[in-house]
Amino acid sequence: MVKTNVRRKGITPVIAIVLLLMMTVAAAGLAYEFIMNMSEKQTEAIGEQVDAQSNKMRTEFRIIQVKGAAAAAGDVDYYIKNVGSLEIPEFDGTKLSVKEDGDLRFDATFAGTCTSVGTIEVGDVCVLEVTDLINPLALPGDSVTTVTYELILDSGVTVSYGCNLANAADTFC
Question: In the 8-state DSSP scheme, what is residue 138?
């Protein structure tokens, strides 16, 4: 018997298979972690959207009174009552439109602040003070019977207030 001195070079097939299995398990673990992380972020985003939409649906205001200057320009106060089922953080009004007998008479963006401290509790009234607003009903027009004020708040909620004016000389309800 002849004895040969053969040296084996490289990785044996068993070690190669073990290494390949370890790399496969590691890749599967990374893919699983990535997919779970993405689905968790999507679930959180959808949950936040559902909460925001639900809060928007439960947010409800009513304009209960409008007071202001009878001049062509001046300050106008909108008394807004929270009639929804949520407390609302203090907000700013963003857009106002006024309709006279169904016809749009005035549409403007403005900056106004609701003068209430902190949140507006359910049932509380805040005063939205709009300064330097052109009196929408001081514009030339026929006699006024029904006026509708629509206020679009920065939260996207639209509040409206309608009233009948006694005569064309009245400018606010």
Answer: G
Q: Check: CB of residue 60 under 8 Å from CB of residue 94.
A: no
Rounded CA separation 92/89 (Å): 10
Claim to verify: residue 40 and residue 106 sit in the same structural domain: no
DSSP string, 8-55: P-S--HHHHHHHHHHHHHHHHHHHHHHHHHHHHHHHHHHHHHHHHHHH
SS3 136: helix
| Domain identity same for 108 and 141 | yes
pTM of the model: 0.51
Q: Is the dihedral of CA 25, 31, 32, 37 positive or negative?
A: positive
| Neighbour-count burial of 97, counting CB atoms closer than 10 A to its CB (0-12 exposed, 13-18 middle, 19+ buried) | middle
Residue 19 in domain: yes
What domain range includes position 109? 61-164
Locate 12 and state its tokens: 């044996």
pLDDT of 117: 56
Q: What is the CATH number of the domain that holds 142?
A: 2.60.40
Tokens 């005569």: give the residue: 167
Q: Quick: pLDDT tens for 102-118.
A: 777 767 666 666 665 56
